[in-house]
Amino acid sequence: MGFHLAPEACNCSAPDTGNIEILDLFGTDEHREKWLKPLLQGTIRSAFAMTEPAVASSDATNIELRMVRDGDHYVLNGRKWFATNAMHPNCRLLIVMGKTDPHAAPHRQQSMMVVPIDTPGVAVVRSLPVFGYTDREGHAEILFDDVRVPATDLLKGEGEGFAISQARLGPGRIHHCMRTIGMAERALEAMCRRADSRTTFGLPISERANVQDWIAEARIDLEQVRLLALKAAWMMDTAGNKGARTEIAAIKVAAPQVALKVIDRAIQVHGGAGVTADFPLAQAYAHVRTLRLADGPDEVHKRTIARQELRRHRS
Fold first, then answer.
1. Is the residue at 37 inside a domain?
2. 91-99 and 73-84: which strand pairing?
3. Residues 106 and 188 in one domain
4. Contact 172, 17 (CB under 8 A)
5. Which of 168, 169, 206, 269 is the most exposed place for a label (fewest CB within 10 A)?
């Protein structure tokens, strides 16, 4: 029994999906021809470079990588990490968020640029393991040392980086949740199969009342988060990402928490085997736990929900 594990960690999102959206919404005709088409065709991969090791990147206004205008180019200096996909052999493109004007208003200091990964001065330093697991597509730490990028590769305009990141991260968050729900479904399936195949004290484990409670609660919880994910997707389609921000934040908190509960109980039913590499449950648990940090920690999303709720009642 095996299932796909979501590869993203920390503040990165489903890289190609999110970058496709950025290039479609904010790229130039040249960007779409050169990068968007091969991404859609699956012939290349891409990575999103926003998170930094030296600052709390859950607040995107903290980022420090500098983008300094120099004639017809920008010069990039700084360090990023958790750039998912950057270790993939077909990764050709980075979309990088940096600071172009440290004196502007907090949400107007950042910009985004299209940066080919083979640009001189871009150095992939290492692949970052997650709870000891190294993902097949890698979460890279990347150094930018006097990287010169044509000004034409600036996306949308100076000071638009924060707005672009919000447009990107909304869909990325719900993509995470959809995969997470699928992962929890497979864990529930594994739990049921294991419970039926093992006997303790004369009875199948599946006949134990507490195990039946776990199975029933898993189904109830999964149906609830699936409906919440569908509502968030519907809101994004009908009201836009901004109009769906409460639902997006809610599912981003709820889906990993439910999945962790289901996977944890599946591990328990598997006994010692559940924490080994013979089954994918331990790795699934590690990746889903990471999703409580990916694209913003739970606390940031709860803050968004609480503010919206308070604003609604106060008005």
1. yes
2. unpaired
3. no
4. yes
5. 206
Q: How many CA atoms lie within 13 A of 129 on its CB side?
A: 5
Residue in 178, 169, 171 with CA at minimum distance from that of residue 258: 178
Structure tokens that stand for 188 in this block: 């529930």
Question: Do strands 45-49 and 203-204 pair parallel, antiparallel, or not at all (unpaired)?
Answer: unpaired
Q: What is the pLDDT of residues 151-160, one digit of tens each?
A: 999 999 999 9
Helix, strand, or coil (residue 202): coil
- pLDDT for the residue numbered 41: 95
Do the beta carbons of residue 247 and residue 174 sit within 8 Å? no
Write the CATH number for 46: 2.40.110.10
Q: Positive or negative CA dihedral for 166, 168, 171, 172?
A: negative
Measured CA to CA, the distance from residue 310 to residue 315 in angstroms comes to 9
- Phi, psi at 150, each rounded to 5°: -55, 140
pTM (two decimals): 0.87
Exposed, middle or buried, 203 (CB in 10 Å: 0-12/13-18/19+)?
A: exposed
